[in-house]
Structures are given as structure tokens and as C-alpha cells.
Write a structure and sequence with these properties.
The chain has 188 residues and is of the alpha+beta class. Helices cover 32% and strands 19% of the residues.
């Protein structure tokens, strides 16, 4: 089970596990409730989501907690990245809030974090962290991806994640980097 209700995350994780012949179902598709994210780190929240999905379904669960960390905002929005989008998860609002908080700051460095947590019935859980560093642009560019993708340019590239083809993003993303660690630990 992929412990998410986020369709963008589901598409990305499904694409990562597909080559391994792993059939998945999402927590959203099973109608499972979303647990409250009370952790103080990406790792804690990913594990919390995975454990909640296992408890509700009895299936092994892979969860993701991810967000964007902005240097000039002392790490915000960080683990609160989705909350900055409000109850309707409007990331145009979230991106505008980041830009407003930056208020013309010269330091536009940021990085995406993704932590994958795999929890098993019986209690075992492990986590893997991936990061991709870059900088923020304004206005947002591109309509691919989701979340803060249209305002994030990964280091060494000239396009935002929102402008990149999905395969190009998957090759360098924070989620792909976390997945590579998961793959080496669990799928080889």
C-alpha cells in the first residue's frame, strides 16, 4: 500500500515501483483516514503515516513525507509545506506565500526533501531520505508535477520541476533519491 491521499505523490511512487512488478493501492483508494502529522521531522511524519496505514489495513505500507526547505526562511515551510497550501491544498497560494515571505531576499536557495518509510504488520519500520538542492524562481514556470515544482530549479538545470518532463524529474528528484536507497535496501 502507498500511504497517501496525494494523487501527485501516488503517480510518482507508482512509476518508481512499476519496474519491480509491485502492485499497489493507495490509502485514499481504500478510504483510509489521513493521520494527523504530529512529528517534528520528515522521518517522524513518514513513519507515522506508514504505521497508521498498516494498522488500518494490515498491509505493508510505504509512506512519503516531503516538502521544501527554504534557507532564507530558516527552513520553512519544511514539514509544514502542505499546510502552507491551506485546507484546499492550493499550491498557487503556497508558492505565493513563499514568495511573499522571501520579500525580495537575495538568497533564493532551497531544497526538496522526501523521506520514504516502509512499515510492516508486526511493527518493523525503516526510513530513507532523499534531497535535491536548487533555487526558487518567481513567477512559477510550467504546469507539470505538483506542489512547489513550478518555482523550484534543481542545481545544474535551467528548468523548474514544473517544466521538466516526468522522466527527467524522476531521474533527479528527492523522491527518486530516497527511492534509490529504498530499492537498494529492499528490492535487490
Amino acid at each position: 500500500m502507498i500511504a497517501t491521499h496525494n494523487p501527485g505523490k501516488l503517480v510518482e511512487i507508482e512509476a518508481l515501483v512499476a519496474p519491480f512488478g509491485i502492485a499497489v493501492v493507495s490509502a485514499g483508494a481504500l478510504g483510509l483516514p489521513e493521520p494527523e502529522e504530529t512529528g517534528t521531522s520528515f522521518e517522524a511524519n513518514a513513519e507515522l503515516k506508514a504505521r497508521a496505514a498498516v494498522a488500518a489495513s494490515g498491509l505493508p505500507a510505504l509512506a512519503d513525507d516531503s516538502g521544501i526547505v527554504v534557507h532564507a526562511l530558516d527552513g520553512a515551510p519544511g514539514i509544514y509545506s502542505a499546510r502552507w497550501a491551506g485546507p484546499t491544498r492550493d499550491f498557487a497560494v503556497a508558492m505565493a506565500k513563499v514568495e511573499q515571505e522571501l520579500a525580495g531576499a537575495a538568497d533564493r536557495r532551497a531544497y526538496f526533501v522526501a523521506v520514504l518509510a516502509l512499515a510492516w504488520p508486526g511493527g518493523n519500520a525503516e526510513t530513507w531520505r532523499g534531497e535535491v538542492h536548487g533555487h526558487l524562481v518567481w513567477p512559477p514556470l510550467g504546469d507539470r508535477g505538483f506542489g512547489y515544482d513550478p518555482m523550484f530549479v534543481p542545481a545544474g538545470h535551467t528548468m523548474t520541476f514544473g517544466e521538466m518532463a516526468p522522466a527527467a524529474k524522476h531521474g533527479i528528484s528527492h523522491r527518486a533519491r530516497a527511492f534509490e536507497k529504498f530499492r537498494q535496501a529492499c528490492l535487490e
